[in-house]
Each structure stands twice: as structure tokens, then as C-alpha cells.
Amino acid sequence: MAASGISLKLLIDTQNEKVIFAEAGKEFIDFLFNILSLPIATAVRLLQKKDMVGCLANLYESIENLDETYMHSNMNKSIVLKPQAAIHASAFPLPLKDKVSTAKKVYMCSNKNVHGIHAYAAYDPRAICPQCNYNLSSAVQFVSSPAVNEGQGSAQREGYVKGVVTYMVMDDLVVSPMSTISSITLLNKFNIKDVGVLQETSASVGMDEGLKLLKESLHSNCVLTEVFVKSMKKAKETEEEQTNMGLPEETN
Questions:
Q1: Choice between 113 and 244, residue whose per-residue pLDDT is larger
Q2: At 239, is the secondary structure helix, strand, or coil?
Q3: Exposed site from 24, 39, 108, 240, fewest CB < 10 Å?
């Protein structure tokens, strides 16, 4: 993924100021799919408590403020507040990647006796083996699921979807493979008679846009419009205001 972020092409109805659909590649689809794998506590932390809907932010803050003495000795608050994502770090191609705790280490029972290694594993080395009460503190290497050799590079085989396909993402995040027929069908669905109102523009998804997408996906059905169209409109209005402020006053 380029440093500038994930690239998208947006088809915008300029008359109604609405995204019809986005044309996206593998990286953006993997990002959207990974939203569903985020633990709830991670979503609360990423969005910061002020942006959360409902009372989960209060629960998160309560745990933050709880003294560690109230926790079991083999537990700590970070297990709840910073849970590990289900997917391994190398297969997490997100703008939010650096903000998500991913499963990097797995531990097994440290009691190696004549009966062999006990078949228990944990992400926390302080966990207790149910069979012998030893700590599960022996680190073992985590191995990702094997990638099927499809003639693609290793980067293309990571994540969820294939990289040889272009995908269509609707404003409400419905995802499907891109096709000419589906594009025409959408124009009819939105009753667009004049193609002159349509504008194609490029967008980049970095950290800020990733957080906005996560936030809007929790309470909006017009996610792409909220994140890209309205933000572009706001940026343009701000630029115009700054330009007008720099103009000399008119004299009679």
C-alpha cells in the first residue's frame, strides 16, 4: 500500500451531491471486510469516546478508571481495552493498521514433562494451564493460513479478496464485482437521465478517512457521501472563505 493511502474512484451525482458508487481494488475491500473483525473495544478506542453512539464509551471509560487491584491476578485491563484482532498483522492492509492490536504471539504450557506438552494455548503468557496449573508461557510461532497459489504475488494473496478483480462499493457499503451492466442498472435505479450531472473523481483513504468510514458505518446509510462528498464540499467552502478574507476591501 502506498504511503498516500488506498486509491478510489468515485462516481458522484453533482446535482444531488451524492456518491452513486465507488470503483475500488482489493485493498479497500479488505479494509471494509476487516471492519467486521474489529473487537468492539478496538472500535471504541479508535473512534475516541466522544464519537461513539450509545453508552459503550462509558463502559470503556469505567474499565480504564478501574484500579488493577480489582482484577484477577492472571488478568489485566489491556486484555479488555486492547483486544487482539482475529486476523494476523501481515494480512491487515488497513489505514488503521498501526492502531489495531493484532495476534502476534501465542503461548503454550511451559510444563514439559514425560507425558508430553499439554495441548493448551493462550495469547497471554500469564494464563494458567487447566491440566497442571503451570503458566502458558512458552512462546510458539503463529502461522497464518496457507495462501493458495493462484499465480499472484504474496501481497495479492493476503487479506480476504482476490486482487485481479475491480469491485463496486455502494454508498451504503454494499460490495459487488464491477461490471458495465451493473453500472448502467444503477443509473436507471437512481433515475439519472442526464449523464452530465455525473462527475468522476479520485479519492485517497488514509488514517483520517479510515476513521471516518468506521464512524459513519455505525450509524449512516450514506457512508461514502458523508466521508468524501461532504468533506470535499466543506474543504472547498473553507478555501473560498480564506480566499475572500484575503481580498482587499472594495472602495466606492
A1: 244
A2: helix
A3: 240
Give dist(CA 58, CA 218) in Å, integer: 17
Grid cell of 17 as nine digits: 451531491
**Is the torsion defined by CA of 70, 73, 76, 80 positive or negative?**
negative
Summarised one tens digit per residue, pLDDT across range 178-222 is 998 888 888 888 888 888 999 999 999 988 898 899 999 988 999
CA dist 34 and 194 (Å) reads 37
- CA 87 remoteness from chain centre: 12
Type of residue at 139: A
Angle (CA) 238 223 196, round 5°:
70
What is the radius of gyration, based on Cα positions, of the chain?
Answer: 24
Q: Which residue(s) pair with 41 in the sheet? A: none
Q: Kindly report the backbone phi and psi dihedral angles of residue 168, in degrees, each rounded to the nearest multiple of 5, phi listed first.
A: -105, 130
